[in-house]
Amino acid sequence: MVYLWATLLVIWNLAGLLLVLIGLPGVWIMVVTTSLVAWWQWDEGMFSVWTLAAILALAVLGEVVEFLGGAAGSRRAGGSPWGVAGGVVGCVVGGIVGTFAIPIPLIGTLIGACVGGGLGTWLAEMAAGQKMDVAVRSGLGGGVGRLVGTLAKLAVGVVVWAIIAVAAYWP
Description:
Blueprint: H1 2-19, H2 26-40, H3 49-76, H4 81-101, H5 107-127, H6 132-169
Helix pairs in contact: 1-2, 1-6, 2-3, 2-6, 3-4, 3-6, 4-5, 4-6, 5-6
């Protein structure tokens, strides 16, 4: 029965990993779900405290890297905190739209998230009263920064998923 739960957890966490591409907290879904399974199956020894601590630390690292990527791209291009906030909202909306508008699995979502992040940054900068050239530069920086941040968080998420997958079957 433990292997059934391990298999379901690994599949569920793979779905959580895909959520990272649209700016949703997929890594945190993996951490919470794995922690719940670990608590529920504690007598079976499915996960150690060290495994749970490692995936928690990696999830925090992934969030920091993603945020800094998008924020640094916008700020380096002259953006304001309004642009950073607009980029976060634009990333989520763009990721959802890109998933359906560009029906190539994962690629459409990533492209949509980056374009949405750039457009969200640009719109927020324009709403904050920035000049067009500053807002455009900030939007481009936000889009590129979002791409770098999302790919870095996805890489961290893959590592988290692999740790969970190995630990689920090999205590």
